[in-house]
Each structure stands twice: as structure tokens, then as C-alpha cells.
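Suppose you are handed a protein chain with no further information: no name, no annotation, nothing but its sequence. What can you learn? This example shows the usual starting point.
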Amino acid sequence: MKHFLLIGILTPCLLLAAGAGILAYGFHRPGFTIKNTVYVYVDDSKDFNSLCRQLDDTAQIARPGRFRLLAGWLKYPANMKTGRYAVHPGMSHWSLLNDLRRGQQAATRISFNNVRFTHDLAERLAGQLMLDKEDLLQRLNDPDYCRSLGFTPATAGALFIPNTYEIYWNISPDNLLQRMKREYEAFWTDARKKKAANISLTPVETAILASIVEEETADAGEYPVVAGLYLNRLRQGIPLQADPTIKFAIGNFALQRILFEHLEVESPYNTYKYAGLPPGLLRIPSAKSIDAVLNHTKHHYIYMCAKEDFSGRHNFAVTLAEHNRNANRYRAELNRRNIR
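A reasonable first move is to predict its three-dimensional structure. Written in C-alpha cells, the prediction is:
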């Protein structure tokens, strides 16, 4: 009788244990039918149901009911963490939920290049990260905040060295700017700082000049020559007379012909009126243009004029007479093409 009683007690326990084992095995089986790694994104507005729909659409989740059951057991729906999470082929529900619960996200690659204004940069970054464009812009336009990083709102773009970076998708604006500061400091090695000092420029001033150089020519091969020309002018106390600074001052980079009336614009960026460098960047310069300033071509040119073939390249000159001949050819071509 005792044996029958013991069997009666043990049988349900064994069945429960077997069921739990089968269920646990199910949780550790591949839970997604994808062939390549995909990513799911959890931001502050996403709830558990939205995540499940995303997993269904993006990761082809198998047995979604089982995933919901396990998530409930693990109390995940009430403790969701923002981030970008990888779902790998063969990954189980259990493994993904462990990553989701711990906030163990996958870094994302961000890149930015060919950016002119900081509001363009903020928009570009907001399109790649969870952060809000306005939150980032507020910091980049705040004089005190910029000063804490070693910049002004006019020079804050120098903080960003165009490249590709691995960053967590849910990074805060403050942490992003601190990360960019570390990247900036890594870029500005002692060797680069020494080269800047040798031409009597700070790293920020080098970036300002690089931004002018980059706006001046469409041909990166000309960067070192153009940089050398502007450095000649700075050393000799000659105003830069850089047309891109006029375009910046009047807010029209599409301008094809600079007229005398444009040269009268009252702005600290008008390098026809004011000698030296302007107070800020015209664009966020590339590492290539910064290095072109630091490793500029040594020559005696102090004049330049766009080539009359509209190639984006320039004719360079040492004397004013030679420059006037180059300028006359360019103006004649503007007239011929009816560019006013």
C-alpha cells in the first residue's frame, strides 16, 4: 500500500519535472528563423507588445507565445532597457531575453562626413542614434557648455573629426560629446600639435583654416596648395580674401559670382574686410583637409582664382598682374555663360 502511495506522489512530480525540462529545452532551442543577424531597437516609447511585433517582422520569431511566456517569468516586460540588440541565427529566446534584460546591446557604427553646419550634423546623428536632435543642438549652441569642452558655439564643429565610430545606439548627448572629445584628443597627437604650433596655429585655428580650404576647392588634391597660399597671407598680414567666407557671411553657398556689393557685408567672417582667420568654422573639416594645412605645400603664391573651365580647380599666382590675367579669363567665362 505504501508503495502505491509513494508512486502516486512521485508520478505527478516526475511528470512536472519532465514537463519543466521539456519546456526549458524549448526555451533554449533556436527561436528565430533568420539566416543573417538582424537588430531590434528599444527606445523609451516602445512597450513589450511593440517589441514582439518588431521581432515578428524583423527576426521571424518562432513560437511567439513561448517567448511571451518566458519574458513574463523573467519579469522582462516591466523592466525593459533601451538599446540596439542583435538577434543571431540559431539564437534562443532565452539568450535574447538575457541580453534584453541586462541591457547587453550591440554597438552601432555611425559616420558623418561632408557636413557643413552643426544643425546638419545634429540631424545626421539623430538619424543614426536614439538621441534627440534638439537636445544635442542645445548643447552645441550653449556658450558655457561649449567652453567646458574647450570650444565656442562657432568652433564646436571642430570637436567632430569625420570618421566611422562604434557607439551604443542609446548614448546620451552628454556621453556622445565626451566620446567625441576623446576622439578629438586622440586625433590631435603631439605630432599634429607640434605642426600646428610651427605655423602659429592652435588645433581649433587649424580646423578653421581647413574649413576654408575645403570650401575653396572641389579638388582635394589642391588642399595643400590652397592651405599654403592662405598661410602665406597670414604670415604677411594680408587679408585672406577667401570667397567662401563671403558666402558664409551672406548665407548663400550656392553663389557662383561674388560681386563688389557682397564684399561690403558687415560680418566678422568677411575676410575681405578683416585680416586673420574668422571666428568660426565654415564647415566641419575632414581629417584630410586638416592634415593638408599641417602638411601644406611650401610656395610663394598669394593669389588664386577659379579656373575658367569650371573644373573646381584654381589658377595660382605670385604677382597681382598675373592674378588679374587669371581673373579676367574667369570673368569672361562667367559673362559668356551668363552667370550674373
